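Same chain as my last thread, 112 residues:
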Amino acid sequence: MTIFDYTNLPTITVPYILRDEDNLAVGVYVTNQETKEQLYCLLGDTALFYDGYFTVDVTDILDGITENTSLLVKAVDSNGNPIYRDIVVFSTRLDTVADYEQNDTNDEFVYA
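reply #2:
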């Protein structure tokens, strides 16, 4: 999961570790988990890949994104197969106790 600063929109930056260097990404899908609105970002157009991270411009679905939105980000290869997935949430939503639940009896808490 990537925790992102809401004020940096419309561009999100996702840490990216590619395990198979021969299988390169050609684009990125971004799905708003609440509205199910989806955006496809072409490599070099609205998605840029760098060493260790990539950026995505989500201007086209920005109206549906709030501080409490979760985004599914999926980089795909030339066959449309996902080669990297991540969930993006915004740091502002992590301030509420409702975002956490007890994991076990050892008083450990996890983000849910």
